[in-house]
Amino acid sequence: MGHPAFEWRSGWRAADRDAVGVSYDGLMGKFFCAALVGCGVVSGWAQSSASAQTLPSAPSVQSLPPTADRRECDIRSLLVCVKHVAGDEKGIVLSPLHAPAENLWWIVPFGVATGVAIHYDTDAIDDLKVRVAPGVLEFDTSRENKFNKLSEYAGLYVPFAAAGVGYGAGSVRHDDYLKETAVLSAEAMADAGILDEGLKYALDREYPMADNAKGGFWPQGPKGWPNNPSMPSEHAMNVWAFAHVVAGQYDGIATKALVYGVASTVSVSRVLARQHFPSDVLVGSTFGYLIGGYVLNHRSKEHGNLVDVSAIQTPMGRGVEVRLNLTRGE
After folding, report:
1. Domain limits, the chain
2. Between 253-272 and 141-152, two packed helices, what is the crossing angle to 10 degrees?
3. Tens digit of pLDDT for each residue in 61-81?
4. How many CB atoms lie within 10 A of CB 216?
5. What is the 3-state secondary structure (H, E, C) of the chain?
6. Is 24's pLDDT higher than 80?
7. Whole-angstrom Cα distance, residue 37 to residue 108?
8. pLDDT for 267-291, tens place per residue?
9. Would the pLDDT of 28 be above 70?
C-alpha cells in the first residue's frame, strides 16, 4: 500500500533537526519530565530548541546515496519490525531533549497531578476496604480477583489478540489498512512494554499490597532492588497505546468510545484490584496514550506527520531527509 511522497535532502547537520517541531516528540518529552518531577526524581528538565541555520545548496540527485530502507513491518520481515520498535523507543526515551522550552508549562499540571496522586495513594487504597463487621474493615479479595481478571484480559490479552486477528483478517481480505493498523498497534504495545519495564526498575516503587500500601520508592535501597515495582501500570500503558492507534486509524465516534472506554475500564480496574496505586495508573495511561500517538504519527501512512525528518548520509557529510506526506488522510 504505497503512497507517493515528496523528498528533499540536504547536508543540513543532524543537530538542526531540533528546529523542526515534531508533535509527539515534544509531548513525550514534556510528560516524561513531568512524571519524574511528580515522583520527586527530578525537579525540572528543559532545553531550548535549536535555532534554524542557513541551509546549504542541496546536492544533485545523482550524487545522493541510495534511499534509506523504507520497507514495511511485516510477519515476513520481522527484522524491520524490530528496527521500527527500536527506533521509536529511542525517540521516545530521548524526547525530553527535544521539548521546546516555551511549551514546558505542560509539565506543571501533569507533574502536580502526579505528585498529588502519590500523596493520597495510601488513603485511596485504604478506602477500598469494606465493612465486614461493626468497626471492622477488610479488603474484599473476591472483588479484587474479579477486577484483576477483567484488567488482565482487557488490558493485555484482548489488545494483543486483536492485533493478531486484525493482521490475519487484513492479509486474507487484502485489506492493507486493517493490516497496517494491526502492525502499528503491536509496535506501540511493544514500545509501551519496553518503557514500562525500564521505568518500573528505575523508580522501584512498592506495589499496594506491600508494607501497608505505603508505596515507597526504593524502600530498601539497592540491597532490596527490585521491590515488586508498581509504577507505572503496564496494563494501563499497554491498552492506552493500543487504543490511541486504533482510534487514530478508525476515528469514528463508535470506535473511539469503544477503545477508550475499554482503556478507562482497565485503568480503574487496576486500582480496584489493588494491583496499582492511582498515580501508577495515571502515569501509565498518559504515557501509553502518548506512545500510541508517537507511533501513529511516525509510522502511519494516512495519519502520520505531514513533514517527516530523518537522518541520512550525504556526500557533504551527515544530513537530513525531509519527506512531505502528500497523501495523508486519504
Report:
1. 23-53+68-304
2. 140
3. 333 333 334 577 877 788 888
4. 12
5. CCCCCEEEEECCCHHHHHHCCCHHHHHHHHHHHHHHHHCCCCCCCCCCCCCCCCCCCCCCHHHCCCCCCCCCCECCEHHHHHHHHHHHHHHHHCHHHHCCHHHHHHHHHHHHHHHHHHHHHHHHHHCCCEEEECCEEECCHHHHHHHHHHHHHHHHHHHHHHHHHHHHHHHHHCCHHHHHHHHHHHHHHHHHHHHHHHHHHHHCEECCCCHHHCCCECCCHHHHCCCCECCCCHHHHHHHHHHHHHHHHCCCHHHHHHHHHHHHHHHHHHHHCCCCCHHHHHHHHHHHHHHHHHHHHHHCCCCCCCEEEEEEEECCEEEEEEEECCCCCC
6. no
7. 9
8. 999 999 999 999 999 999 999 999 9
9. no
pTM exceeding 0.85: no
What pLDDT score does 320 carry?
A: 58
